[in-house]
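Chain particulars:
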Amino acid sequence: MWAAWSDRNGKRGALTSALVPAVERFTNRWSRAVYDDDAAARDELDEFRSLLGQYMKSYAFFSQILNFGDTYYLELSVFADLLARLLREQLDGGERETVTADDVVLTHYRLEKQRDENLQLEDGEARGLQGMTEAGMARQQERERAAKAELVEKVNRFLGGLDASDEHKVSTVELLVREAAENTDLQQQARNNTRADFSHSPQVRLVLEDSVWNQNCQSEAIAKRLQELPPTDLVELAMAFDLWERSRAG
């Protein structure tokens, strides 16, 4: 699995194949637990999935301050991350419907007095604001690195192997999706359709294809690859960069 992950020119299929045995073992045990109505087994499997995410986050944090001296822990972190994603696709359908304020309808409310509070200001010098601690800054940097790594992984599924930096590829796709999300027809469709229905709209493909051919891309290699992408791949790439969410918010 690590060899497939480390190969910058490798295919996603090779990486997924390396994880198939682990996914099959888990899903077989899950199916058996569901069939036998074994609550204890299901709780154990749920805890395992939770530990995958916890380990990945813990390693990302502690690796900033500790030198583990062994690549095993890094490899285990990558394995946990990828396995958790594949299990989500297998067991949770890969995506969950996003709930927004548009889905909430206020039917009634009740005012109830809980207690009285003394809001009088105290005399003397007020305490200053406390700055972010090193741990807080580390967590913020961890979140930023994780978000950036996820974008790079998404874009390299379709633009991997090109003679261009990851930052350039991500920024090119970001611009493409941002321009497409400004299309008023797509905005209306996004507000009136689910994410899945929106991704199958012919209008989405047309807008994306027009954006690809009209975009002034500094990299000829990236522009050529985007133009050669099958329409379904182009839509999948744009959806991975939140085209539906951005169009709804437009």
Notes: Residues 153 and 160 are 9 Å apart (CA to CA). Confidence is low (pLDDT under 50) at residues 94-104. The first helix runs from residue 2 to 6.
